[in-house]
Amino acid sequence: MALVTSHVNSLLVVVVAVQCVYSQRLICSKEIVCDIDDIQSMDDFFVNQYVPSDVKSVRYRNVLLDKVEGYFFHAIRRHVKNVDIIQSPALRWISIPGQMNVSSYSVIQTSVRNIQIDARNAITVFSVSDSKLVMIPESIINLRASVNIAVERCLVDALDMANFCDLSQLQVLNFAANRIRFIINSSTRRCSVYDSLQILALPNNLLTTLNMEIFNHFGKIQMLDVKQNRIKVVLGRFESMASLQLLLSKNKLTSIDFCGWNVPNMTSLEIDYNELTIVPACLDNVNSLTLLSIRTNRIQNVAIDSFAKMKRLVTLDVSFNNLTTIMLNSLHYPTSLRDLWITGNNLSQLDLSSVSVPSLELDVRMNCISSMDVDSISPNITRLNMAANPIDCSWKTVADRINVTCVDDVQSKARCT
Description:
With 417 residues, this protein is mostly beta strands. The chain has three helices and 32 strands.
């Protein structure tokens, strides 16, 4: 065995050669992170003693063991708080002991299928990604101090919220890009996580149905992200007092209604890239929204009156639908509306003579509007973007409007013919 140490450009480099087959390499950078490569046996754990005392984070790359457990973790120096095990395809099993000072663990690009976590831990951030984990480990209930738990790009196919019942500190739960087909909550008692969880992220899974009643107990959730699943149905009565953002984009919804919902403080709803053909029903039950986006659907007709009861709505986006008509000439607008996006539809005309909000910025690019009487447009339209229409009468400011000149767009005329 040979040990070589050197300092190169503020890096501490330690290379340990063993039988000319593998070498353990320790590189500590000025960013206060040490990389330890090619650990293959207990004999290699001594390299940890060369981690400087001011280093808080260690990355173990290409761990050649199939299991890491107490001996591995107890060799980590006590001043290290963050441990990453990365790019280790040989690794299949992790057993994290108790009474460690480490507060953050991440496991990335491994073959890990089993994880055991001792109850005597101080872990606040725990993540597994790009690994072969199929089920949520039973011992995840031992992450009592965790604020953030993530299992991303693994093989988990079901999520039972009861697994996290007693995690009273948990704020962020992220199961992005797994194979989750259903969500349940099998708990029969009140869980402390109901009062702590703020973000639940489930994008890029295989959900086909979303039962909102599952989340009625989770009174603190501020973001529910189920983008890019295969959801066809959203069902159940839903109640929440939280300032909720609901992200439903890139699913397969043909309709959705909010008739059984009581969400007086919900702020944002995104249903982009679905298959909606009509505006959702019972919008008055989500009248606290400041943002509503239903872009890239199949809606053909919209009237601004449909949104009139949404008193806090600031931004409405109905871009890239199949709109042939939109009724904007109305006395019944959402009273706080400031931004209206109708880009990329099939509108051929637009009546803006009566707009009952004091200042509206309107984007109607990439439609087929061929005529516009600027003098008849309500003075409450403070910005108008008409680019890529057969006629373009755009202005950016109220001052620009005074001298606006409408310009023919030959390419758009050909497109709309």
